Amino acid sequence: MPPRYFKNDAPLARRDPFRQVEASLTRLVTDYPPSEVRATGGLFKGAVSVAYVFLVLQPLYPDLKIEGQALGAWSAAYLKQAQDQIASFPGPTVGKCGITDDILALLAIGAASSKDLDMVNDLVDYSAEVIDPESENELLFGRAGYLYLLRFVKASFNDDPKTLQLISDTQEDVIDAILDSPRPWKWHGKVYIGAVHGAIGIITQIVLTNPKKYAEKLAAELAVILTYQYDSGNWPSTVPPERDRLVQICHGAPGVVVSLLSIREYFPALKNKIDDAIRKGRECILERGLLTKEPCICHGISGNALALEDEEFEHFLTYTTGHEIKSMDKDGLLERSSSPESLFGGEAGRAWTWAVADKGLEKRILGYNDV
Predict the structure, then answer these.
(1) What phi and psi values does residue 2 have, to the nearest 5 degrees?
(2) What residues are designated binding site for Zn(2+)?
(3) Are 226 and 275 in contact (CB under 8 A)?
(4) In this structure, are residues 333 and 2 in contact, taking their beta carbons and an 8 Å threshold?
(5) Which residues define the annotated binding site?
(6) How far is the C-alpha of 227 from the C-alpha of 351, rounded, in Å?
(7) What is the Cα–Cα distance from 362 to 230, expressed in whole angstroms?
(8) By the 8 A CB rule, do 286 and 279 touch?
(9) Checking CA distances to 183, which of 24, 39, 132, 268 falls within 20 to 30 Å?
C-alpha cells in the first residue's frame, strides 16, 4: 500500500484549466465510453453521474465538442446507458433513497432538464419512503441526498409557483423527519461527522434548502461540530473520536470546510468560530491533503482542492492531470479508484473541478452544495 499522502513542498504551480477540462472530458469518453460504464450508482458513480457532469457543463461550454460531439449529446448517451437498464433498478426504498438511487437521480435530471411536471410528481411521491421513520438521514442513501435532488429540480421551476410550492412542501416534510430523528444522527450504528455520512452533511443540506427557517434551529448543533476539531485542524470521522487519520471530503477537514464555506453566511453569531475552524482546517489540508488515492472528489486531491483558496486550489489541481496520475501510478504511489469514471470517485469529478477553476465558479461539490 502506498503512503496515505505525500509532502506538499513544491512551489505553487498551475495548469491551463480549459485545456485540462478538454483533456479530462476526452479521457472520460474514450476510457469510459457510455456502453462500458456501469448503469447504477445515481449521482455518485456510474452512467448517471457522468451524464450529470456533462449536463451541468454543457451551458458553461456550449461550443465545446469532445470527440466531435457536444457535451449535451454525451450527456444523453450516458443517460441512455442507464435508461436502457431501468427495468432492473430496484427503485427507492426505506434507507436507500439518497443521491445513489438511480430512479430518483433520473427523475431529478429529467424533471430539471425538460421541466417535466409528471417527473416532478413522481419524484415527490417517493417522499413516503424518504420520511419513513426507519429511513436514513445522510447523503448517499438518505434524506439529505433527497433534499439535494429536490433543490436541483426546484431551481428549474422558478416561474411556476404551483410546482415550487409542491417541492417546498415536500422539502419541509423531509426536514421535519430529519429533525424529529433521535440525536445524534447515526449511520450503520455510528455517529459520523463528515459531509457524506455525517452531521455536517445533513446540516448543510437542510440549511441550503431553507436557511431562513432552519439555520437558527441548527446553530447549537453546528457549534458542537466545531468543537470536535482536532488541534491538527482535522475532524474525526466519528465520535467518540478515533485516530486523526482521514483528510478527505467524505471524512475529515475537507468536507467540513467545504460545507462551512457554503453555509457560514447563515450563522452570523458563529462567524468568528467558523472562520477560525476553516483556517485551521485549511492548514491541515495543505499539510496532509495531497492524497495518494486516485484524484477524485470524495476521497482524493480534487475534492480536497475545493476547500482551499485560489492559488492553493489551482496548485492542488496540478496533481490531478493525466500526466501526474500516470507518474504516480508508475512510481507505485497511486491507489486506484473503484469507480474511475464517476462524479465522486473519478474522471467526471476531475472534469468538474477543472471547470470550477476555468470558469471561476464557487468552489462547491457538484451533487452536494452547488445548488
Answers:
(1) -70, 165
(2) 250, 298-299
(3) no
(4) yes
(5) 250, 298-299
(6) 34
(7) 27
(8) no
(9) 268
Kindly report the pTM of this predicted structure: 0.98
Residues 29 and 74 sit within 8 Å (Cβ to Cβ): yes
Distance CA 148, CA 316 (A): 27
Chain segment 331-341, per-residue pLDDT in tens: 999 999 999 99
CA 47/CA 342 separation, integer angstroms: 8
- The whole-number pLDDT of residue 242 equals 87
Q: Burial, 117: exposed, middle or buried (Cβ in 10 Å; 0-12, 13-18, 19+)?
A: middle
**Which residues, including other chains, have CB under 8 Å from residue 3's CB and lie 6 or more apart?**
292, 333
pLDDT tens digits for 202-239? 999 999 999 999 999 999 999 999 999 999 999 999 99
Cα(288)–Cα(4) distance, rounded to whole angstroms? 9
Instruction: Return the pLDDT at 321.
Output: 98
Strand partners, 190: 187
Give the pLDDT confidence of 38-85 residue by residue, as tens digits: 999 999 999 999 999 999 999 999 999 999 999 999 999 999 999 999
Instruction: Encode pLDDT of 116-151 as tens digits.
Output: 999 999 999 999 999 999 999 999 999 999 999 999
205, three cell numbers: 443540506
